[in-house]
Write a sequence for this structure.
């Protein structure tokens, strides 16, 4: 049974869906996408945990009051409001955050700024750790252009999705639909534009993390490559474990069984009983 509720934020009411029973997990999706990106792993995760999945403003069931304001740093601010509401709603003191791409960036920010709320991090090719050069900043501006974003949102998602599971196929359909939805297209562009914002750079901050971290990465991720971003993340995040998979940018959707095995092993010692 799923418990659904909304959390008012400055960028719009955020839709949250909760299922299962046990220690709390909170799943944060990428751009574009919504909480359904975790469908392939949600059931198994909810067998031993309470799983909360949200839709960022402008995606899924969450409206965006100002689509152009939905930037990566703004999503970290949204999580500042939504996570305490989830904790109160479920009666848990803290949570393990599972974040993909910009969702991973928001999870990192939360763990750095409110460590009392975060029991651990499962990061799926997280944002905020790439080296920004003139070329990468230009690429972010390029993807934020209206015509480019409308034309490439779907094909780019196809390019970084190696394995076409049912969940991955559904996520690709949603990515291609961005071009026909003015609100989602503006959100997609705003997030891409913000990747070049200095506030998106967490490389100099993550050394202060004091929670267990599991990094999960696809071998074939062309957006945040394992050989550069993955290795860098494992090097600069204290005590982080890096697990890689033969997949693209979303191993939780592409190789869910393998990803789940790694995550469940990581979660086992983090349960209140184990601790």
């Amino acid at each position: 049974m799923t418990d659904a509720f909304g959390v008012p934020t400055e960028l719009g009411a955020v839709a949250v869906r909760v299922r299962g029973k046990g220690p709390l997990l909170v799943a944060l999706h990428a751009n574009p996408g919504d909480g359904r990106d975790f469908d392939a792993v949600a059931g198994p995760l909810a067998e031993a945990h309470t799983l909360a999945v949200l839709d960022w403003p402008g995606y899924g069931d969450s409206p965006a009051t100002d689509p152009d304001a939905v930037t990566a740093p703004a999503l970290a601010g949204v999580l500042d409001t939504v996570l305490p509401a989830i904790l109160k709603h479920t009666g848990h003191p803290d949570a393990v955050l599972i974040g993909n791409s910009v969702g991973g960036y928001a999870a990192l920010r939360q763990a750095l700024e409110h460590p009392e709320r975060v029991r651990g991090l499962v990061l799926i090719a997280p944002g905020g750790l790439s080296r920004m050069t003139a070329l990468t900043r230009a690429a972010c501006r390029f993807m934020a252009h209206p015509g480019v974003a409308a034309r490439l949102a779907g094909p780019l998602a196809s390019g970084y999705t190696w394995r076409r599971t049912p969940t991955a196929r559904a996520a690709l359909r949603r990515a291609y639909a961005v071009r026909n939805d003015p609100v989602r297209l503006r959100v997609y562009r705003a997030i891409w534009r913000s990747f070049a914002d200095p506030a998106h750079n967490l490389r100099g901050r993550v050394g202060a993390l004091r929670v267990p971290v599991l990094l999960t990465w696809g071998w074939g991720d062309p957006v945040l490559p394992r050989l550069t971003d993955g290795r860098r993340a494992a090097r600069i995040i204290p005590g982080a474990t890096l697990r890689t998979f033969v997949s693209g940018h979303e191993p939780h959707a592409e190789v869910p069984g393998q990803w789940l095995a790694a995550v469940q092993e990581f979660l086992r010692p983090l349960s209140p009983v184990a601790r």
